[in-house]
Amino acid sequence: MSENTRKMTGARAIIECLYEENVEVIFGYPGGALLQIYDEIYKSDLRHILVRHEQAAAHAAEGYARATGKVGVCLATSGPGATNLVTGIANAYMDSIPMVALTGQVPRSMIGNDAFQEANITGITMPITKHNYLVQDAKDLPRIIKEAFHIASTGRPGPVLIDLPKDITTEEIEFSYPDKVDLKGYKPTYKGNLQQVKRAASAIEKAHRPLIYAGGGILGSNASEELLQFAEHIQTPVTTTLTGIGGFPTQHPLYIGMPGMHGTKYANYAIQECDLLIAVGARFDDRVTGKLASFASNAKILHIDIDPAEISKNIKVDIPIVGDAKNILSSLNKYVNPVEHETRKEWLDRIEGWKKSYPLHYVGEQDGLKPQYIIEQVYEACKDAIIVTEVGQHQMWAAQYYKFSQPRSFITSGGLGTMGYGYPAAIGAKVGKPDRVVFNIAGDGSFQMNSQEIATAVQNDIPVIVAIMNNGYLGMVRQWQELFFEKRYSHTCIRDSVDFVKLAQAYGAVGIRVEKTSEVKPALEKAMDSGKPVIIDFIVECEENVSPMVPAGAPINEILDLERKE
Amino acid sequence: MRHTLAVLVENKFGVLSRVAGLFARRGYNIDSLAVGVTEDPNVSRMTLVVRGDDHVVEQVSKQLNKLIDVIRVTDLGADESVERELALIKVKSDKDTRAEIIQIVDIFRARIVDVASKSIIIEVTGDEEKIAAIEKLLKPFGIKELVRTGRIALTRGSKSS
């Protein structure tokens, strides 16, 4: 502890701690239990973004974290405020995003009495946080906040919640911020075990058909450059998971797209035929593996992950290396002898052949507007945008058809699959990266889950562009109903439920409707020039499917083409 | 297959709930859980009995290790550790059966800790099988109430867990 202690209230101390952690912005919503804290925010230099629903505060903090690599911070009052954060916290937990959630709580003397706006939020969020705290003594505030930021941002990142009883915020403490944290049970491993690195190196040198399968961990550890070097160094193709997209340049000749349910055929074939699968910061999610028993069954599995619990959780691993991806990839770049392109020629040619035979494609010659085309045009209009998505068909099309050259440019809800995620996350991303163009590629279903946040974007002058692929359906569910329930579209039609252009205008945003292919480019240009929050309502073909597709539970090489032909 | 895990945790608010919650949400079977503070008041020791194959137990250990308040997890193999349970058994007893019950108690090196006109409370420590055995013998007399602590265990010798 430093020797300069100052007397202040708990609320002031919280602000001081946030300064110490270099927090620039918090996403929040006030309430009774937070009055003291909000009064200090009023007096502080902190930027506070007032959302319209606390769920959006959590998603925005998360979008900010993904775009910037910093810890996202959100703030909500006790009871309903805190419970509204839950979905956003769970989302951050599933995708390992660093976040600190601060919640108000009733005064200590009233905890457990079912007091007004009381909820046991530490109990509720135990399974969806990396760690959480109920502050029981104002003196602990600096230590707890220091620990929370440390835990959220180190090791496998994740959300940490701090519950703040109201009377803690009024109590006076001697403030000093600790320099270090001391957590007996928390010592993440960063450096890979050298023996294991050497074993991996030897396996890589012996492999004839290696494949890199990279996940969100690449972005979490800022390992994109090392991954690129590694892939080129060993002349090995790369597939990235949904949350790993952007971790490797998608136009690179070694890139083979996303694996799994809506992955490319060539990525899935490559997984099934490789003899060494090099998994880096990826967790063998069921959307990737399909039927586990037949996943990469010809391959030795090399798994690099910072979380030891991921090793052999779903797939038995032959060579595990626990540690930070950036660190381990750079040591592999040292320990593995470079491989000539010629050595891999047969394998790379084979993949190239699949790429040519089974490219991602859609039939674009019809009258209707194709969502895939729109995404291609978004790319043409701005090749360097941050693309955020909601959840559903549009999310998969964005993953398939936009081209990413740099990390932290694709922000999407992977593990939890949270509809309503995209718009607030896009707001957070734009706040963190004001110089980038931020598109939220949305579905008409998902967008309606948090469309009230148009108000947040307008009031705070955050010019995010929403591109709604409006097909009048909860499209992904409809697709499953079409394929597996004989087109019984049970409660998935939401056509004509809202006029998005008028909705945008009602909030003071720009609303544009696009119904024809020829209107796409001008609309995108207009949106980018406006400098305002924009909602573009693209009326797309209503029964377009995401293709290819591996049915749930099938082996990933049993992959269907679903494009519609007239 | 059952495994005994020794789990050292920080003696902090909510730690028991974190550990128990982890079992619930990950779908692991927990047969017994005993908790108490150690020689260091800041540290508690939990002894967990987990059912599952090696893969499950490995996952349980790793997931437990991920909890910030968990300091160390050790899988105690049966031959390297001392394991005990304590049970209190209230048995129906009158002057006709008392002598016979006392005999059983003696054979098992258990103790009588309370005697009333119509019942006796017996304290017995030992491994699970021993407690099951005495329970079986006492059953015909009529067990009115029974409580068990769950298993506690320590590694043998100077090695600590």
UniProtKB/TrEMBL annotation, chain A:
Keyword Flavoprotein: yes
Catalytic reactions of this protein: 2 pyruvate + H(+) = (2S)-2-acetolactate + CO2
UniProt keyword annotation of DNA damage present: no
Entry EC no(s): 2.2.1.6
Cofactor note: Binds 1 Mg(2+) ion per subunit.
Enzyme's top EC category: transferase
Pathway participation: Amino-acid biosynthesis; L-valine biosynthesis; L-valine from pyruvate: step 1/4; Amino-acid biosynthesis; L-isoleucine biosynthesis; L-isoleucine from 2-oxobutanoate: step 1/4
Record-annotated Thiamine pyrophosphate enzyme TPP-binding domain positions: 391-538
Domain Thiamine pyrophosphate enzyme central: 197-332
Cofactor(s) this protein cannot do without: Mg(2+); thiamine diphosphate
One annotated Gene Ontology cellular component of this protein: acetolactate synthase complex
Keywords: Amino-acid biosynthesis, Branched-chain amino acid biosynthesis, FAD, Flavoprotein, Magnesium, Metal-binding, Thiamine pyrophosphate, Transferase
Gene Ontology biological-process annotations: isoleucine biosynthetic process; L-valine biosynthetic process; sulfur compound biosynthetic process
GO function terms (MF aspect): acetolactate synthase activity; flavin adenine dinucleotide binding; magnesium ion binding; thiamine pyrophosphate binding
Ranges of residues in domain Thiamine pyrophosphate enzyme N-terminal TPP-binding: 8-120
NCBIfam families: acolac_lg, PRK06048.1
Family per record: Belongs to the TPP enzyme family.
Name the record gives this protein: Acetolactate synthase
UniProtKB/TrEMBL annotation, chain B:
Domain ACT: 4-78
Pathway annotation: Amino-acid biosynthesis; L-valine biosynthesis; L-valine from pyruvate: step 1/4; Amino-acid biosynthesis; L-isoleucine biosynthesis; L-isoleucine from 2-oxobutanoate: step 1/4
Catalyzed reactions per annotation: 2 pyruvate + H(+) = (2S)-2-acetolactate + CO2
InterPro entries reported for this sequence: Acetalactate_synth_ssu, Acetolactate_synth/TF_NikR_C, Acetolactate_synth_ssu_C, ACT-like_dom_sf, ACT_dom, AHAS_ACT, AHAS_small-like_ACT
GO BP annotation list: isoleucine biosynthetic process; L-valine biosynthetic process
Any GO CC annotation of this UniProt entry: cytosol
PROSITE patterns: ACT
GO molecular function: acetolactate synthase activity; acetolactate synthase regulator activity
EC number, as in UniProt: 2.2.1.6
Keyword Transferase: yes
Record's keyword terms, sorted: Amino-acid biosynthesis, Branched-chain amino acid biosynthesis, Transferase
Family: Belongs to the acetolactate synthase small subunit family.
Function: Catalyzes the conversion of 2 pyruvate molecules into acetolactate in the first common step of the biosynthetic pathway of the branched-amino acids such as leucine, isoleucine, and valine.
Self-association state and partner proteins as the record states: Dimer of large and small chains.
Protein name, entry field: Acetolactate synthase small subunit
Organism lineage string: Archaea, Methanobacteriati, Methanobacteriota, Stenosarchaea group, Methanomicrobia
